[in-house]
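Internal tracking record. Fields below are filled automatically when a chain is submitted to the structure queue. Please do not edit lines marked as system-generated. If the sequence contains nonstandard residues, flag them in the REMARKS field before resubmitting.
Queue: standard
Priority: normal
Entity type: single polypeptide chain
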Amino acid sequence: MSTEPSSQAVTAGFLNTDWNPRDVPAGTRTTNVVLRTADGAATGGSLYQPATPSDTVVCVMHPREFMACHYLIPDLVAAGYAAWSQSPRSVGNDLRLEHEIALHDVATGLAHLKRQGFRRILLLGNSGGAGLYALYIQQASLAPQARIAKTPGGKPTQLAELDMPQADGLVLVGPHPGQGALLQGCIDPSVTDENNPLSVDPALDALNPANGYLPKGQARYTAEFIERYRAAQRERVARIEAQARQLIQTRLQARRRVKEAAGAALSEDRRIAAHTPIINVWRTDGDLRCLDLSLDPSERRPGSLWGGDPYASNYGAVGFARQCTPESWLSTWSSLSSNATLAKTAVDITQPTLVIEYTGDQACFPSDVQAIVDRLGAADKTHHRVRGDHHGRALTPDEEPGRYVAARILAAWLHARFPLTN
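SYSTEM-GENERATED OUTPUT FOLLOWS
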C-alpha cells in the first residue's frame, strides 16, 4: 500500500499538459440505453467510448444521483478508457432506497457492459457511490447462496439468483464511510421530540454558546461534551430504528390478519396492510467537526455540504435522510442496520484500489478516509490527498481545481495497472 500526500509525482511528462477538457473529447461516441433489471425495474446508462474504442470501462454510479455529467468522465475518455454512467432506478429520491435492491441496478449495468465485449470493468465510487460499489463488490465475490438474503427491513433481495459480474478494480473519490455512518456523525442529538423539529435539549445543543459554540468554525467543544454528544447521537439513531421496526411489524401483522381472514378481513387491517408509512427525520446537519475545525483537522471551510449557516442547514428542509420509509431507513441511513458501510465491506475488497481524498472535504473527514484505507483488503491500494472540496473544486480562487489533479492521478493509476491494449 502506498500513500501520496501530494500529486507532484504524477504531473510530469504528458500528464502535465492541459489534456482534460470539460466536455468529452472530439470523436467520442456516446450511447444511451434503457435496461430492465432482474426484479423488473427500469434503469439506464450512458456509455462514452473514445475515438479508438477501449476494452476497459470505468463505471460511475451513485445510489440516488444522476451521474451522466460527472466531472471525471471527460478525463477518463481523454485517457483512452471507456466510461459508463449508471442511473439508479429512482434518480434524486432516496425515499425508498434500499441498497440491497440497488445492487440489481449495478448488476444489470455491468452485465450489459459484458455483453458489449468489455474485457475489464472498474468501478468508481464518488461520495455515496463508494458505499454502494463496495457492497456490490463484496456480494459479487460471494457464492450466490452466501449473499444477503433479506434487506434489513425483511424484503427478499433475490441476490442469490442474480448475475453479478466481478469488477477488476475500484476507485474511491471523496468517499465517506457509508450513508448510515455519515448520518451517525451529523444527526442532531438535541432533538427531544421527533414530532417537533424545533424541540431542543440545551445541554446537547451544539449551537449553544454554553457548550462551546462560536460562529465561523471557531467553536471549541470539551472532550466531555463531545462524548455526551456522540452517545446521544447513537441513542437518537436507535430511537428512530425502533420506530422503523415497529412500523414494519405493525404492517406485517395487519397483512397476516388480512390473509387469514380472506374476504372477511376488516377494512382497517386492509388499510394498514396497504399503507407505506413515511418517517420524517429533522435536524441532520449537526456534525461537530463542521463547527469546531480543530476536530479531525483538515483544510475544510466552516460549515457543511449544505452551507455555512448551521441554523439554515440544520433546521431547513434540505438534508440527509429527511424523509424515509422504514425500510430505507434501515438499509440506507441506519448506522445500526445498514449493510452499505465500508466498515463491513472494505475488508472483502481485494481488487487494486485507488483512494483519492480531498483535503477540504466537508463530508469525508481525514480519520474516516484513513479508516477506509486501513480496512481495505486489497494488497494493492493507493491513497492520494488532493487539495479541493467535496466536489473537487478549488479551495482558493488562484489555484487549480482539485478535480483536475484527481483526473491526472486517476489516469496515471489506470495506465500503470490497466494499460491500454488497443
